[in-house]
Amino acid sequence: MKLSKAKLIKMVKPKLEDLGFTEFKDTKSGSQGLFIKRINQDLYLTFGLTIHRYYDSAFTGDFYLSKNTIIGAQWGDIPKEIYERPSFLLTNEERSLYPEDNINVKGSYDIWWDGSDEKSVLDFLRVIELTEPRFINQPELLEKIEQSEEIKILVNHAEAVKKLVVTNQTDGLYSFQPSKEVDGIPFVWFKASEKVLKESKEILNAYTVIRLAADAYRQYILENIKDN
What we know:
Elements: H1 5-18, E1 22-24, E2 34-38, E3 44-51, E4 58-66, E5 83-84, H2 92-95, E6 113-114, H3 118-136, H4 139-147, H5 149-166, H6 187-199, H7 206-227
Antiparallel strand pairs: 1-2, 2-3, 3-4, 4-5, 4-6
Helix pairs in contact: 5-6, 5-7, 6-7
């Protein structure tokens, strides 16, 4: 039977929450489950689940480390290394425990786990716990994140959106608002997002409005969790 998004989230959610992640409803990023944790005041670790297109019960996940929560955002000078699968953070000895059929066409391990096998799911969660600190504790990567001008722009946009929402300054005319609720995010966030993008003369369309609104909203939620 094909592994469903709901079943996968149910299996991994308790452990990911134990590791400090918060689940967010997400229908736009392409992930089959989105979990995020605030590493410090400026840094977020996003983890997206991925179900294989062709193998019914196979799944994996992706780490994304940045000052935003837009998993997969890697344009301009944003370092490619901020987006990585846990299997590529294992040592050669650790990878040797997995069968040969987990080796991809480039000769590197891209491990997929079996959602129909409880032991495989537990192994996946063990690997997440093992590799997370390796991923976030990379001084050179953290420096690249600090130096990225594109990331600074994303940070500034999200901060501007949060400020507009908190101060209730979202009056105006809008052209790119969603017609219905998106992932449980209040409509005010989309208004603030469109306003910020328009004033910043950034690419403005329905997609960019939702993307920025979701990022700012998730950051806001995580900031309040951390502070309470």
